[in-house]
Specification:
single chain; alpha/beta; five-stranded mixed beta sheet; 18% strand; globular; 186 residues; 41% helix; Rossmann fold
Length: 186
C-alpha cells in the first residue's frame, strides 16, 4: 500500500503547482509498478480529509488537486493518518493485505508553529517505530521547500527523501525527490 498524506496548508502556496504536478507524476509512476496494489491519500491543514480511501491502485487513473489554505497541524494529522491506515489494513482479510506499506508525508514547512494539540513528537515517534517494528512499514518525508522540517522529521523518526536536492529549491527539487523516491520504492 502506498499511503500518502499531503500538507495543504498555506505553506504549500508558493509551490502548489509543482507539488501537485510532481505528486501526480509520482502516483502515475507508482500505479504502473507491479506489486504495489493499494493506495490511500489524505490531505490536511488544521482539518483532515481523506481524498482517496484505501483503493486498488494498479492501472487506476488518479488526479490530485492541491488547494493550499489555512495553518498546519502536522503531528495530529500524521497520528490520525497512520492510525487510519492501520485500521483499514486490519479490516482487510489477511490474504488481501499488502505485503509492503509505504507512508509518504508531503510537506513544505514554512517554520510556522505546528497547531497540533493531540499528538506530540514523542507520540508520533513511538507510533512510527511500532509500525516499523511490528509490521515493517516504511516512512518517508517528501519535503517541497527548505529543510526546517528536519527537526520534526528526525524527532518522529521519519527520514527526509533526497534531502540534499530538496534543501533550497522548491520547484525543481520536489520532482527530483519524487523521482528518487519512486526509484527507491520499486
Amino acid at each position: 500500500m502506498l499511503a500518502v498524506l499531503v500538507d495543504r496548508s498555506e505553506s504549500m502556496a508558493s509551490c502548489h503547482s509543482e507539488v501537485e504536478g510532481g505528486l501526480n507524476r509520482f502516483l502515475k509512476n507508482q500505479s504502473e509498478q507491479p506489486g504495489l496494489h493499494d493506495v490511500m491519500l489524505a490531505q490536511f491543514n488544521t482539518e483532515y480529509e481523506i481524498v482517496v480511501p484505501p483503493t486498488r491502485f494498479t492501472g487506476m487513473a488518479l488526479r490530485y488537486v492541491l488547494e493550499p489554505r489555512g495553518e498546519s497541524a502536522l503531528l495530529d494529522n500524521m497520528g490520525r493518518f497512520i492510525t487510519e491506515v492501520g485500521e483499514a489494513l486490519a479490516k482487510m482479510p489477511e490474504k488481501d493485505r499488502p505485503a509492503k506499506v509505504i507512508v509518504c508525508i508531503v510537506t513544505a514547512p514554512d517554520g510556522q508553529e505546528d497547531h497540533s494539540v493531540k499528538w506530540s513528537k514523542e507520540d508520533i515517534k513511538k507510533l512510527v517505530q511500532h509500525q516499523r517494528d511490528q509490521y515493517h512499514w516504511e516512512f518517508i518525508f517528501l519535503v517541497a521547500a527548505h529543510v526546517r522540517e528536519v527537526g520534526v522529521s528526525a524527532a518522529v523518526g521519519v527520514p527526509i527523501a533526497n534531502m540534499d536536492s530538496v534543501a533550497q529549491a522548491c520547484h525543481a527539487a520536489l520532482d527530483e525527490a519524487l523521482a528518487a523516491t519512486s526509484a527507491v520504492l520499486l
